[in-house]
Amino acid sequence: MDDLAASLVHHLGQVRDDQIDLLRRLVLSESPSLVPAAQDEILGVLTTELKALDLEVEYVPGQETGGHLLARAQSKVEGAQLLIGHCDTVWPLGTLDHMPLEIDDGRMRGPGVYDMKAGLTQIIFALRALREVGVAPALPPIVFINSDEEIGSRESKAHIMDLARDVERALVLEPSLGPSGKLKTARKGVGRFTLTVKGQAAHAGLDPEAGASAILELSFLIQQLFALNDPERGVTVNVGMIDGGLRPNVVAPKSTATVDVRVLHQEDVPRIEDAMRSLRPSTSGVEIEVEGRIGRLPLEHSGRNRTLWKLAQECGNSLGMRLEEGTAGGGSDGNHTSLHTATLDGLGAVGDGAHAQHEYIDIEATLDRTALLALLLATPA
Predict the structure, then answer these.
(1) Are the beta carbons of 10 and 365 closer than 8 angstroms?
(2) Residues 171, 377: contact at Cβ < 8 Å?
(3) Distance CA 248, CA 205 (A)
(4) What angle (nearest 5°) sits at the alpha carbon of residue 110, between those of residues 324 and 370?
């Protein structure tokens, strides 16, 4: 272990309890995406912590969300590195009543602890550790924390894309991939489509021939959609929700389907989108409308992303860690940054159970990742 790595490990060991205490405060501050006012408390805590690092903190208000934080170093220096996290969770207010914060057997459990409030504490304590050991980050840090990632980053995406265009690299503090702690060097792109089938109502007993069943047509379309699945190419198409019809004795005049699409390679995006929009009815008297797109493009193994991954491996080696990589089926804001700058995702907590009742982090392994983040921040590209 080199001198800087040893110094970081030693300092972070001394403030171990402080990092756990901050994480506890963040978890106890429930912050569901769909309750904008619920973001006020956690954004306030994070603002205080970021200002204590001598960062200039700007609150970016949202229109339908709780808003976002943008923090920068005061000194204006060419180049920068972007740290990205989100403070929103999928858990509704009151989840702590039946899913309380617990610490036992080396694990912390609670809503949002893994995805991704532990990653937010890592940002704070990695930057603090560098300051305490007297080492400046290799590039000035920019921290962006949004409150709408779990609902698609609809408002924050433009801000993230603008920031990514102007930085040398982006470090995404989403949780690592499963209990083994793999970093996420690839992510599937994500799309959502809505199919609306319009038919013709008629009495199902007296005059069925006068109708055109939207449900019947949708059943044909669903088979065509599932036929688009291509495991070898990493393409998944899932009809996750269907609706339609008026009454059992009425030929259905309308039906809808909501479709989730995932693609591993950007070159497959136009093909899948064209296939979705090229769907045609096979039932006479029926019309089809298709809305949606693949809004998060894949995070791929680009040359600059591979270079950043190798740099992280070197930092891990300096800390005595053997890092592994993996591909995530879900998207993140790293999908957006990867379009414009070198991106490494999954630098956050080690644990499991994102969006699940058993959500937890491995405390010691997660604290080790804080040292990895600090060393990576200090290492030139």
Answers:
(1) no
(2) yes
(3) 10
(4) 40
Question: To which residue do tokens 């272990």 refer?
Answer: 1
Report the C-alpha gap between 203 and 254 in whole angstroms: 14
| Integer CA distances (angstroms), 315 to 60, 250, 304, 352, 378, in order | 33, 66, 17, 24, 10
The H or E element that residue 145 is part of is: strand 141-146
Query: For the chain, how many structural domains are there in total?
Result: 2
Which residue segment(s) compose the domain that 193 sits in? 189-296
Q: What digits encode the pLDDT tens for the residues 253-310?
A: 999 999 999 999 999 999 999 999 999 999 999 999 999 999 999 999 999 999 999 9
How remote is the C-alpha of 210 from its chain's centroid? 48
Residues 205 and 327 in one domain: no
Q: Are residues 161 and 220 in the same domain?
A: no
Specify whether the CB–CB gap between 344 and 333 falls below 8 A.
no
Specify burial of residue 152 (Cβ count, 10 A radius: 0-12, 13-18, 19+): middle
What pLDDT score does 78 carry?
66
The answer to whether 359 and 110 are in contact (CB under 8 A) is yes
Asked if residues 32 and 89 have their Cβ atoms less than 8 Å apart, the reply is: yes
Whole-model pTM above 0.70? yes
Last residue within a domain, chosen from 261, 296, 331: 296
Q: How far apart are the first and last CA of the chain?
A: 20
Domain final residue pick, 279, 296, 313: 296
Do 40 and 129 lie in a common domain? yes
CATH number of the domain enclosing 287: 3.30.70.360
Residues 199 and 260 in one domain: yes
Instruction: Examine the domain organization and report whether 56 and 204 are in the same domain.
Output: no
pLDDT tens, position by position, 188-228:
999 999 999 999 999 999 999 999 999 999 999 999 999 99
